[in-house]
Amino acid sequence: MFNYFGKNVGIDLGTANTLIYLAGRGIAVNEPSLAAVNSKTGQVLAIGEEAKKMLGRTPAHINVIRPLINGVISDFEMTQEVLKSFLKRLEVSGPFIAFQRAVIGIPSNLTEVERKSVEDAVVGAGVQKAYLIEEPLAAAIGARLPIHEPTANMIVDVGGGTTEVAIISMAGAVNTKSLKIAGDKLNDDIIRFVRDEFRLIIGEPTAEELKITIGSAILLEDKAELAIRGRDLTTGLPKEVLVKDFQVRSAIVRSLKIIVEAVREVVEVAPPELVGDILRRGIFMCGGGSLLRGFNQLIEKELSIITTVVDDPLTCVARGTGVVVENFKRYAPIISHPLIPRDIKV
Fold it and tell me: Which residue among 32, 129, 170, 193 is least packed, with the fewest CB closer than 10 Å?
């Protein structure tokens, strides 16, 4: 009877974007993990997409805050505010509580303190019970991989703040590696390159546009270029330059190489039988970073293993948390929570 009045949600609390899966409805929120705050009054002016529009365009007393850095909560109160705002948008009402249970995807290398802060933030935002699941597992579930079978499911989740590499078999992670090199680091690489090469200062939104529009991991047949605007480092005046695809590629090549090496290391220490499975089944990529053109082909070329980008890679982790929250009893053994009751009632 109690569950009738409580809704369950799956949350992908990402560095770049936060996605919320409402049980029975699907993904209901997909917004940037940003908040705009007036530093004089402490008032939260905007959250999500509205705050992103302000990035790099605010006066000194308005700060656009990213409350998560490299998958870790850096501003607890603001994370709570962001979650509260997103949960309100779900328009869930009931006589008792709006949200009974949440399953949250987290990076695989978080400390106990960092895990506890995620739980506390979600509970503080209005959810009765918070359960954690590591992102590679959630991504594999979201990609509909057979994680319960004794076979290798290798997943590479390239997000905004972290890249998660894992081999999953029998509903558990055999080998994992978490890197603080992902989409945001590629943006930083592009900003630095444009500053050094063109003596031009650009912001994160422009770097993101360059990465998405003309960025690639390998040499492609189609040549591309993009005109960007910024501040001339020498004169301090506005300036426009034309950036070509090979220049963006040279800016991000070092970071991509580190990610590829991390994938190689995880494969190298895997049991031989699982390595055989990986060769047969391939590597699966998800997360926003997997959409970088030719990234899967780069991994395929370097490791000689078929690499596939899953369907709808941006929502993979969120869909995974949604599957878990809708089939809670089945997935309870793989959920991390210090207070899981022994007799789970669904």
Answer: 170
pLDDT in tens, 22-48: 998 999 999 999 999 999 998 999 999
CATH superfamily to which 190-248 belongs: ATPase, substrate binding domain, subdomain 4 (3.90.640.10)
Q: Which residues contact 341 (CB under 8 A, 6 or more apart)?
A: none
CATH architecture of 2-138+316-334: 2-Layer Sandwich (3.30)
Those residues whose C-beta lies under 8 Å from the C-beta of residue 55, and which sit 6 or more positions away, are 34, 64, 203, 204, 205
Query: What are the φ/ψ torsions at residue 203 (nearest 5 degrees)?
Result: -95, 175
CA distance 195 to 80: 35
Q: What is the pLDDT of residues 164-186, one digit of tens each?
A: 999 999 999 999 999 999 999 99
182 phi/psi in degrees, rounded to 5: -155, -150
Starting at the edge strand found earlier in the chain, the sheet holding 44-47 runs: 44-47, 35-38, 62-65
